[in-house]
Design brief:
The strands form 3 sheets. This protein has a 6-stranded antiparallel β-sheet. It has a 5-stranded mixed β-sheet with strand order 1-4-9-6-7, with no helix packed on it. It contains 11 helices and 13 strands. A hairpin with an 8-residue loop joins strand 2 and strand 3. The two termini are 36 Å apart. By secondary structure, it is α+β, with helices and mostly antiparallel strands. The protein is elongated, with a radius of gyration of 23 Å. It has 2 domains: 184 residues, Jelly Rolls; 98 residues, Homeodomain-like (Arc Repressor Mutant, subunit A).
Length: 294
């Protein structure tokens, strides 16, 4: 039951290939590429996994990125964001009649190693907790972004030219932000951890046990409970119940299903237990809501 859950997680960069509004500026070269996205539709609770280091320059709109530990950052116009490799993240974008436009720079280990080697620094093998962060932006960054609009389509298949452009960006950022080198060198010890609420919201109808949710989130059961309670005023069990009851209420109000069918769908073996939980939350029975709809 757990094995297929990753199919709903976008693994970037390749997972962006079939997303509307995304185009390649350069052809993929071993997970390195430069993509441009222009989205005019909402993205809500989109989970993605960074297979390689990524730097995002936002041209328009505001995108919210949230990590496994509920840390969030809004990236707006003319802002730069560093996304380390091996992270499960959540993306949210509300269009409000505006498009989300951004360049995404994916930098594989070969290019990172060249950049680090040129600086004559020993690459660390130490694992640390890492996260995303906004990077400094100056005129050099802006001119670099402008130059991308002048890139000839004849360079689309050029591995060398892609490498030059990515290294150029790294050197420009390194000159104004001393966090870059360290961010590229360390290994992410929390690489398997995922945002718990997003995970439960996505799979609440799958009838996973708390042990299974903990496993999918990259945590032990005790850490799973501790991390959830730290950032929420409820328990994972109660949060999951609330999601299921909210779903059942929507189904009763809009879909021609029996109380028994909905009860079974959200994992109740005993209909009377479902009715009791529903009435406790909404102060009305499922049948009364269903009658109202009729």
């Amino acid at each position: 039951m757990i094995n297929n859950e990753k199919q709903n997680t976008l693994i970037i960069p390749q997972g962006l290939d079939n997303q509307a509004g995304v185009k390649q500026i350069f052809k993929y070269q071993n997970n390195s590429t430069i993509l441009y996205k222009c989205l005019d539709y909402n993205l809500i609770n989109l989970e993605f996994y960074t297979h390689t280091h990524c730097i995002v320059y936002n041209c328009n709109g505001v995108e919210t990125i949230t990590s496994y530990d509920f840390t969030s950052v809004d990236i707006g116009k003319a802002e730069l964001l560093f996304l380390p490799k091996d992270m499960h993240l959540i993306s949210d974008f509300i269009s409000n009649n505006k498009s989300l436009e951004a360049y995404m720079f994916f930098i594989n280990d070969d290019i990172v190693d060249k950049f680090i080697a040129d600086k004559k620094i020993q690459k660390s093998k130490e694992e640390k907790k890492v996260s995303f962060y906004k990077m400094n932006v100056n005129d050099s960054v802006l001119k670099f972004i402008e130059s991308l609009t002048l890139v000839s389509q004849n360079q689309y298949d050029s591995k060398q030219f892609l490498e030059i452009k990515l290294l150029e960006l790294l050197y420009i950022i390194d000159a104004i932000d001393d966090r870059l080198v360290q961010s590229l060198m360390i290994e992410n010890k929390d690489k398997e951890k995922r945002n718990i609420k997003s995970l439960m919201k996505k799979y609440y109808l799958s009838n996973f046990t708390m042990n299974e949710y903990a496993l999918l989130s990259g945590r032990s059961l005790s850490t799973f409970h501790r991390d959830f309670k730290k950032h929420n005023n409820t328990t994972p069990k109660q949060y999951l119940l609330d999601l299921k009851l909210e779903y059942s209420k929507n189904q009763l109000e809009s879909v021609n299903k029996t109380v028994s069918e909905i009860s079974s769908e959200i994992g109740y073996e005993n209909v009377s237990h479902f009715i009791k939980a529903f009435k406790s939350k909404y102060n009305i029975t499922p049948k009364q809501i269903s009658k109202k709809q009729l």
